[in-house]
Design a protein that fits this description.
The chain is of the alpha+beta class. The protein contains seven helices and ten strands. It has a five-stranded antiparallel beta sheet. It has a five-stranded mixed beta sheet with strand order 8-5-6-9-10, with helices on both faces. The longest helix has 16 residues, at 143-158. It starts with a strand and ends in a 5-residue tail after the last helix.
Amino acid sequence: MSVSEAGRSPHQAVAGSGQRGLRVVHGGGGIDRGAARQAVSDLLVALGEDPAAEHLADTPRRVADAYAELLTPREFNLTTFPNEERYDELVLARDIPVQSVCQHHLLPFHGVAHVGYLPGDRILGLSKLARVVELFARGLQVQERLTRQVADWLQEHLAPQGVGVVVEAEHMCMTLRGVRAAGSRTVTSALQGLLREDARSRQEFFALAGLRG
């Protein structure tokens, strides 16, 4: 199984022990750090800087390493457990940190995600909600796509009764350049299943996420 969108490397979920766990790995072609270092050196020259200057001599390596970290999600096991108590109320993780890189300007955007689901036959280890957010945030992204990918992926691999995702983020391409709207945050949402179809469930999700439905 894999998940991919235009402009994103695929992420593979490799079957583990039945439905209990999936090993989620980054399935992209990897980052060529040597080529990235050379590109940064060329960029410094294009910007009128001397890459051989003492303070810039190691900058190409530092920048290549930084982008490699920002663009590569960590592997993890998607651990689920039987919903033996038949819990059918909303499970919500608020304020999950989000760090990503704008696909249009290669500048960071950062904020928080609120991710909730209505359990079906299985429940998810809570830390895995943050792992799934990171899975799609660590890459060249736009916030709208990121929000939708997290919701779609959880709906596919967890099979809950519903999924809701809200992302609130500040974009450096808005705060450091252009309009320079410092402190402005963009809010996006994606809903699946009952959280999209049932008004009361939708309102409960937005209320617990701290937003108006």
